[in-house]
């Protein structure tokens, strides 16, 4: 009987021990849950928001795992400890790769710009003395001022001087030489006032205007072209010069068989003075003469239908423009000559 009671007590003790074992293991998750909950904000926080705050304590399972590399927006503060599930995840590379690409593109932009500026500077340097205008204009056909004995040169640069070179005028009809001018000869080249000579041909406020005296007027009904040696114009202070004028088409002009015979030295007149300008109609049917200001002059005959003289009296002081319009049978203007007179 006693032996049976002993077995019952032993069996009851074993049941009690068995019942106590699960209870102790169930308490372990309860003690570890605070640690896991404190780690959850660390894993949820984005890397770009890393600050100077100290990192939360890692869970026991993640202490040996390396911290992921921060993105380009991360500061120097220590990165928050990852959760155990993120310890093996590699650091994201896209943001750092994108910033590297942007840096490469932005650093390339100045290179393109500097190459463009360099080519622009080289182009400007290759132009030498710059733009030169020769009057009458290149390619002018049927120039109707039959007394042309000078060529005007306009350069929108200061300090321009004739070089030690030769300018030659050829008659294209038979390739004969009309005249040859040594440009360093002071008697062949005259300097003019830029403002008066320019007359709106260039928008520049300053420049150089020169007259090249040919020695004789170009003949009517002839084509002419010029050639000039390298350095025919120069700016000594800048060590630059004009390129050579070559070929038969670089500068050409044709003098029409109609026009006026006018000496440019006669453009200075006095109030009350009367002048006569010989006019040739040639292929033109009529000539009309006008003045601006209109009442500044008195024209004896303002319309001519045959060769004759234009007789003009100057009534007012100032700069007066007299226009000669050569017209065809229907009244269309085929050529026009404007002469500016300075009446004192």
Describe the structure.
With about 350 residues, the chain is of the alpha+beta class. Among the domains are: about 120-260, Immunoglobulin-like; about 265-344, Immunoglobulins (Immunoglobulin-like). The chain contains 3 helices and 20 strands. Strands 2, 5, 6, 9, 12, 14, 16 and 18 form an 8-stranded mixed β-sheet that branches. It has a 5-stranded mixed β-sheet with strand order 13-20-19-15-17, with no helix packed on it.
Main features:
single chain; alpha+beta; 344 residues; Immunoglobulin-like; 3 helices
Quick rundown:
The protein is an alpha+beta fold and 344 residues long. The protein has helices at residues 2-44, 94-126, 194-198; strands spanning 133-135, 140-145, 150-155, 161-162, 166-171, 176-182, 189-192, 208-213, 222-228, 233-235, 240-241, 252-260, 268-269, 274-280, 286-292, 297-299, 303-304, 308-314, 318-327, 333-343. The protein is globular, with a radius of gyration of 49 Å.
